[in-house]
Amino acid sequence: MAMFSKKDSFEEECEKAEKEVISSIIDSRMTMKGELIFEGKARIDGTVEGNINGEHLILSEGGMIQGDIQVSTFVCHGTLEGNVKARMVTARKS
User: Fold this and answer.
1) Domain segments of the chain: what residues?
2) Which residues does residue 15 pair with via DSSP β-bridges, in sequence order?
3) Mind listing the pLDDT tens digit for each residue in 27-77?
4) What is the DSSP pairing of strand 56-59 with strand 41-44?
5) What percent of the chain has pLDDT over 70?
6) How many Cβ atoms from other residues are within 10 Å of residue 39's Cβ?
7) Which residues, including other chains, have CB under 8 Å from residue 9's CB and lie 6 or more apart?
8) Are 46 and 61 in contact (CB under 8 A)?
9) Which residues, other chains included, contact 56 with Cβ-Cβ below 8 Å and sequence gap of 6+?
10) How many CB atoms lie within 10 A of CB 43?
11) Which of 9, 23, 79, 84 sits at a 20 to 30 Å CA gap from 59?
12) How many other C-beta atoms can be found within 10 angstroms of the C-beta atom of residue 30?
């Protein structure tokens, strides 16, 4: 008789997001205008003016997004002007 249940897909996805290496970065000196679509893990240190669709997104303290976000996981340290649709959102105090 098993005492522990199998992890659900959400828990597995969260663990994957934590372990995954950041594959794309919008630098603090960059401003991107338009739709951003990506796979894997991305970090935004600069400004994005447009909607974002991807897997795992980190918005750094100096980063800013003006647009809607649709991702699996979103960690927000910066400024967001838009809507978020995600399975997991972490908002950090800054």
Assistant:
1) 22-91
2) none
3) 999 999 999 999 999 999 999 999 999 999 999 999 999 999 999 999 999
4) parallel
5) 81
6) 10
7) none
8) no
9) 17, 20, 40, 41, 42, 71, 72, 73
10) 19
11) 9
12) 12
